[in-house]
Amino acid sequence: MRKQMVTAVIAAVLITSLGAEENKAEIQKGIKMPYMAFPMKQGKGMYSTKGKCNMCHSWGYVLNQGPQSKAFWRKKVIKMIDVFQAPIKNEDIDEVVEYLYKNYGNGKEN
Fold it and tell me: Residue 45: which region, alpha, beta or left (left: phi > 0; alpha: psi -120 to 50)?
């Protein structure tokens, strides 16, 4: 059983390294990925929110949520803290939620 596991790991490493060489060759050919900027709306709490959210994901993730209620943004911020250990202190939650709601909200509280 151990010999099979070692063989499988060696095979995986070889396959991965072969793929890496192909990718390196493609990059050397000059293939370029398009850059997509996701600008944040200006407003109170923008810099604080940006610092906390963009540590883990692009602002495009926020934009992809679409306009949402204040309750939605609060639940999302709490989820990011509880599930993904987002570096947001309890005393900063309201500021982040307010920024998201005022700039990316749908005008509904719930």
Answer: left
23: confidence class by pLDDT, cuts 50, 70, 90: low
Same domain, yes or no: 54 and 95? yes
Full-model pTM: 0.67
65 and 23 share a domain?
Answer: no
**pLDDT score at 16:** 53
* Domain span holding position 26: 1-33
* Mean pLDDT score of the chain: 82
Torsion angle of C-alpha atoms 55, 60, 65, 67, degrees rounded to 10: 110
pLDDT at 15 over 60: no
Say whether both 60 and 98 belong to one domain. Answer: yes
Q: H or E element: which one contains 101?
A: helix 93-104
What count of other Cβ atoms lies within 10 Å of the Cβ of residue 90? 7
